[in-house]
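DM between two lab members

TW: hey, do you still have the Transcriptional regulator, CopG/Arc/MetJ family entry open?
JB: yeah, one sec
JB: this one, 83 aa:
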Amino acid sequence: MSNTTMSIAIPDSMRTYVAARVESGAYGNMSEYFRELVRKDQSEQAKARLRTLIEEGLSSGPAQPLTDSDNQELLGIARDEIA
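TW: and the structure you got?
JB:
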């Protein structure tokens, strides 16, 4: 995985907050702080997608027995989206 530099503009109050989080030892540097924010957002988006899929499933009608083919398809989807 390669890293790319990105510049962002934030208000001084936010920069002070981030700097304090780094100085507290919670993060090694500001980049680590922002990477963690992105990872948390990615996780929240994945959870929201899963909730949506569960709601769709629950509202789709009576359950049908799963076949071996269904199980293989679901495992494939889970491995691609969760990994």
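TW: got it. The two ends are 15 Å apart (CA to CA). DSSP finds three helices and no strands in the chain.
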